[in-house]
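notes to self, project folder thing:

trying the whole complex as one job this time. last attempt i did each chain seperately and stitching them together was a nightmare. two parts in total, labels are on each line so i dont mix them up again. if this works i'll redo the older ones the same way
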Amino acid sequence: MYKYLSYVWLALLLFVAQVFLLDNISIAMWLRPMLFPLIVLLLPMELRTVWVLFVALGVGLAMDLAVGGSGLYTASLLPLAMIRSTLLYATTGRYVEHSDQTALLPRLAMRQLMLYVAVAMLLHHALFFFLETLSLASLSTLLLRIFASALLSTLIALPVTRLFIAKIAVK
Amino acid sequence: MQRLIEFIKRIYLVLLFLLMEGVALWYYATATPYNEAKILSRTTAVGGFFSGMVTDVGHFFSLPDENRMLTERIAVLEQTLQRERELHGIDVLDSAQVAALNMDNIHYRYYPSRVTSMTTNRQRNFVVLDKGAEDDIKPNMGVITPDRKLVGYIISCSRHYSVVLPILNTEFNIGGRLADNRSACSVHWLGDSPHYVEAFDLSTYANPAVGMAVEASSERLPDGVIIGHIESFEHNAAKTAYSARLKLATDLSSLDNVLIVENTHYGEIEELLKTTEKQRQK
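result (full assembly):
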């Protein structure tokens, strides 16, 4: 149980940062960084998908309640929980063994890890912004929002991921 | 049975995911009327094709009734046209006179349309029509029956379909007025019976009476569109106004052919209202 304490702290930190800081920063209409998907992405890859799904459900619901998302945050986060093992394999070529006792993420090169985070962020943001607008009428604006926001989210996620993985590796 | 349990064990993760995602999407879709209408207009692009086939069969069996109604309508229009000709001293319009009628300046344009699908058993009902953006249909156009009874107004369009917010939706509000003395009121559906709506804030000097017609009073619609007839009325608690229960003029559950009405001045009115609002805020 103790080994999951770092993940709880990370989740709380990212949740507070998202709700009280990132959601209140108004840089441009098409720029909306989102860090909370990291809570799901950085969970131990060895953790069974069913638990990851429940964590994603909890995080999504908490976000929906905190910012009035009406299910939008949950609906966009659940698929990420479902596909993250496949995504890791597609971006890094590393296959997750649930019987593995050593954490997989700290063993990845930082470049591989960031590629995994960047692609996951892009997919999450694409689903989130599409569900939010529910329209392809302004496709160029939608694509700009997806790519610019995913890029900014990944840039902010870089130091957070680096610090967290270093902390996990030390343990 | 054993095999079924084994099979469910194998796919339980996918089932769990689909369940969670389905509930989240359902909640999101029904959280606001905007989301509901947007999703409805997207799904009708596929569903509309199949619903269209079913309604085509229904249309075939209702053709005698529709023909009778159209014939009656033509008769009324012919009478109106004849009266106009007599008023202006024109016997028959020749082709030059027809060409001289500038249709661009017309105040209201009418687009015939048919109902593809609809609900009347929910608190937030919607109607889907078989005309969309490709047919010049835009949000905020009014929708009425061919015999000028209120249906609702368009709230979103896809290429081939449009979604109507009908009077049987608890989010729907419209201004009304008594047909006899033009006293104003506001009309709203409380979500109880699909045959009745409520009229509020009717002046104490309006002299309402059972059976009196209530017309729609909206920039989206022309004059003379009937909402319903007064079934009963009473003073409010402070006795400052009347509230009335109206029997809807049209039965939405059997809605088939409709007219979409475009007020060609609607954009200008909206723009004027926005400008006035801005000036007032300054």
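what i see at first glance: Chain A is about 70% helix and 0% strand.
need to look closer tmrw
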